[in-house]
Design a protein that fits this description.
seven-stranded antiparallel beta sheet; 12 helices; 14% helix; 852 residues; six-stranded antiparallel beta sheet; Neuraminidase; Phosphorylase Kinase, domain 1; Transferase(Phosphotransferase), domain 1; single chain; mainly beta
């Protein structure tokens, strides 16, 4: 029967024709039953007359009609009238995205608003198992209020192949089936796997969305071409023109999202479309902080030819550092604009750096291309660094007279636990002279004295004030002498306190304050400045006696080294990542299982053959992220926001806490099921282990911030004290197979076995450098590891006899760049293992002026 204005189709009165395409004609109509306007899509005769295609269409339409989301057009009814089949759906008043992009690139804010809504709708569909298969600008409507509606979910299977020589990239090349080898979808927006006729999943829609985003950003298509074969070949083989040139006003973080969507390999796209939507929403909400980076036309060089960054809006560094992790300038108004000047340009890993007495020379220690660390000198107004001939040494301090304090022969120079021999050397030349062995760090005092953090044993350090015999038992890091020489700031980290203590030169405490940093610098104004990635917004902060913490600027990934007398800051911007490696029984070598840039191991289940990890580096620095990934290397699944603390041996449960100020915790199932809330003070937690059994239970190390550490039993019903000797652990603990005995550190230098039921412990005759990892299945052996060595050596300790036998060594892939092996898992039979290591990549030094 013919369709025309004024005719009837079932209960619908046809009014006006809205358009036509490969899926038939679309008409505005009136539903006489409900007195509402609708859109009617009348299917082509080729579909209506083919019973198999019609059956599949009705199945797809019913699946799409079940999607209830504000960004997906609602399907009301699938009907048939005579020989015609039709679809009744929500009528959207607006324009197609094709019409919006016809006039050129969209404004970034509008682009992000539209794309975030599209991704939200796709995420809803993908969670329900529905894949669009034909996402393109024609299938996206935008209302006058800026709301997005996605059309034609699941209908790409049915589109007839209708070549259009004038608009080749709009045509759809589709077969009636969905078997491998069948090509479906609109040519210009197909994914590579779609173009090859391979099986599809939700990641194919991500590629199509990436193509749409590219067009919104650049004003032209990602894969242009004159013929279908040219376009298909480009999608499979070629990369689009970089958006840095095709859309130079697009901020780098947005470009990176688009680039990830357009990855040829589906595994390099997003593991879930919900993560893609989250990134787009984050970019939209922080747009004011990143657009300055996109509008700066170039990085200009100063008249003297240095690689100085001419920062017009103080946010160009955001293009270098990334988003949403980095926020260069806080929302507070400033009277001056900070100036960032890069001063090192070699491919190297910087350890420590200091201003020389002249204020224009910078001395620093670094490793180049995996070679031993040595000391270099560079001028702020130059580009080249020259070696000073001081090899295998780390720079600790420079005196006003130009004398250096060096750390020599350290086994792990960058790691806080690394120790070496303290030596002094002159800038004018001559060999270093050794002073004290087993030193962590040191600084010059007024009058030529030295304050030394001396390492005695694991968890046992002392401060030495030289010359003299003053000693202070003090576990901590990085003593720094104040500009007036009257005080020393030392970072402490114990079971009961993490922060800074300020001492006088006699070792008496003057004041202290909580702070989440491993290094403090004295500003000439008397404040302590530090950078942090945890506990608050990543950035630079100031601390002073009797005052609240003062934010200076928000920026992640900076390491502070020194502050000149005139207030200039010497800082390092580098890159590092956690590498997660596993070896399963029967395999001959380690396999990489890292997912993003900071995959920190929590546990492995050999039963479920999965690994649980946190994303803790730049990718997870804001809200964090908990992931579970199969050991076969299949894509990881984002389990929850926040931080995981423990993984059950059967792989069914993860214990997860949020990252907010008063974090909530829960037992989170790794498969279908709802989280079980747990009333645990997550901010006071330092470690947790699941107990064996069908119900989720764990022992946890609590009291981190309460002044009294303890070990408690945690269930869904709450927390129960076990009455054990106070102890503090993070990952260095192990529970016996029967769940009765806990191995952990009951004191800084004591590794003990504790009976949970009897609340009694006995110390093991082992070196304090060893930490528990796992028990053997029969409970006869305890696997232990050396905490400070690279590679990490694993030994087997026999409980009954005290015999210690070497078992294996865990070697990071880039051992010469590895900072530490942090978290280690060994299966109960000792045949499988997993570990993560922090690997330093490259770094550069900057001088920053104008911070207040």
């Amino acid at each position: 029967m013919p369709i025309s204005a004024g005719s009837k189709l079932g209960p619908y009165e046809i009014q006006t024709r809205l358009g036509a395409g490969g899926m038939g004609e679309v008409w505005k109509a009136r539903d006489t039953r409900l007195a509402r306007d609708v859109a009617i899509k009348v299917l082509p005769a080729a579909v209506s007359s083919d019973s198999e295609r019609l059956r599949r269409f009705e199945k797809e339409a019913r699946a799409a009609s079940a999607l209830n989301h504000p960004s997906i057009v609602t399907i009301y009814e699938v009907g048939r009238e005579g020989t015609l089949s039709y679809l009744s759906m929500e009528l959207v008043e607006g324009v197609t995205l094709r019409e919006l992009v016809a006039s050129g690139p969209l404004p970034i804010r509008k682009l992000l608003s539209i794309s975030a809504q599209i991704a939200d709708g796709l995420a809803k569909a993908h969670a329900a198992g529905v894949v669009h298969r034909d996402l393109k600008p024609e299938n996206v409507m935008v209302t006058r209020d800026g709301l997005v509606k996605i059309l034609d979910f699941g209908l790409a299977k049915l589109t007839a192949a209708e070549p259009d020589p004038d608009h080749v990239t709009k045509a759809a090349t589709v077969s009636a089936g969905t078997e491998p080898g069948v090509v479906m979808g609109t040519v210009g927006y197909m994914s590579p796997e779609q173009a090859r006729g391979d099986p599809l999943d939700f990641r194919s829609d991500q590629f199509a969305l990436g193509s749409v985003l590219y067009e919104m950003a650049a004003g032209r298509r990602a894969f242009p071409g004159e013929t279908r074969p040219e376009i298909l070949a480009a999608i499979i083989r070629d990369e689009p023109e970089p958006l840095a040139t095709a859309g130079p006003r697009v901020p780098s973080p947005v470009r990176w999202i688009i680039d990830r969507c357009l990855a040829k390999d589906p595994r390099e796209r997003y593991a879930s479309t919900d993560d893609l939507a989250r990134d787009l929403r984050a970019a939209e909400s922080h747009l004011s902080e990143i657009t300055g980076a996109a509008t700066l036309p170039e990085i200009r060089r100063s008249a003297r030819g240095k690689g100085a960054l001419a920062i017009g809006a103080a946010v160009v560094i955001g293009a270098v550092l990334g988003f949403p992790v980095y926020h260069l300038v806080s929302g507070r108004a400033r009277s001056t604009v900070p100036r960032f000047q890069r001063i090192t340009f070699q491919r190297e890993n910087v350890l420590h750096a200091r201003f020389a007495p002249d204020g224009q020379t910078v001395l620093y220690s670094a490793s180049r291309e995996g070679r031993p660390t040595e000391i270099f000198s560079t001028r702020i107004d130059g580009t080249e660094s020259r070696p000073l001939g001081l090899l295998s040494a780390d720079l600790l301090a420079v005196s006003g007279s130009g004398e250096l304090l060096l750390l020599r022969k350290s086994s792990s120079l960058r790691a806080p636990t690394g120790v070496g021999t303290l030596a002094r050397a002159s800038l004018s030349g001559g060999a270093p002279r050794d002073i004290v062995e087993n030193v962590h760090s040191a600084d010059w005092l007024a009058g030529g004295g030295i304050v030394v953090l001396h390492h005695l044993d694991v968890g046992h350090d002392e401060l030495l004030f030289l010359p003299g015999t003053r000693r202070l038992d003090f576990p901590g890091y990085s003593p720094r002498s104040s500009p007036d020489g009257r005080s020393v700031a030392v970072v402490r980290e114990t079971a009961d306190f993490t922060g800074v203590e300020v001492l006088d030169t006699e070792g008496r405490k003057v004041w202290s304050a909580p702070a989440d940093s491993s290094e403090m610098l004295w500003h000439p104004g008397g404040e302590l400045w530090y950078s942090t990635e945890a506990g608050r917004t990543p950035g630079l902060y100031a601390l002073a006696r009797g005052r609240t913490v003062r934010p200076i600027f928000e920026a992640s990934g900076w390491i502070l080294h020194d502050i000149a007398p005139d207030g200039r800051l010497l800082a390092e911007r580098g890159s590092s990542r956690y590498s997660l490696r596993v070896r399963i029984e029967g395999e001959s070598k380690d396999r990489e299982l890292s997912w993003l840039d900071g995959s920190a191991l929590i546990g492995v289940s050999t039963r479920s053959r999965t690994v649980l990890f946190n994303e803790v580096n730049q990718a997870g620095i804001r809200a964090g992220g908990v992931y579970v990934r199969p050991l076969d290397g299949s894509p990881a699944v984002r389990l929850a926001d926040g931080r995981a603390w423990a993984f059950s041996e059967d792989g069914r449960w993860a214990f997860v806490c949020g990252t907010e100020k008063a974090p909530r915790c829960a037992f989170v199932p790794t498969s279908a099921g709802l989280p079980i809330p747990v009333d645990v003070p997550g901010a006071d937690l330092s470690g947790a282990l699941f107990l064996p059994g069908p119900e989720p239970r764990l022992v946890a190390s609590l009291g981190k911030n309460s002044g009294r550490s303890r070990v408690d039993l945690v269930t869904a019903s709450g927390v129960q004290s076990l009455g054990l000797t106070p102890g503090f652990w993070s990952s260095d603990a192990a529970i016996s197979p029967d769940g009765r005995v806990l191995a952990y550190r009951t004191a800084p230098r004591e590794l003990s076995l504790c009976e949970l039921a009897a609340a009694s412990c006995r110390k093991l005759p082992l070196s304090a450098a060893l930490a528990p990892v796992q028990w053997s299945p029969d409970g006869r052996f305890l696997y232990v590891r050396d905490r400070d060595e690279i590679p990490a050596h694993i030994s087997r300790y026999e409980i009954a006899t005290g015999a210690l036998t070497g078992l294996l060594a865990l070697e990071p892939e880039n051992s010469e760049q590895a900072v530490a092996v942090d978290n280690v898992f060994v299966s109960r039979d000792g045949r499988s293992y997993a570990f993560d290591s922090l690997v330093a990549l490259e770094s550069s030094l900057y001088v920053i002026e104008g911070l207040k």
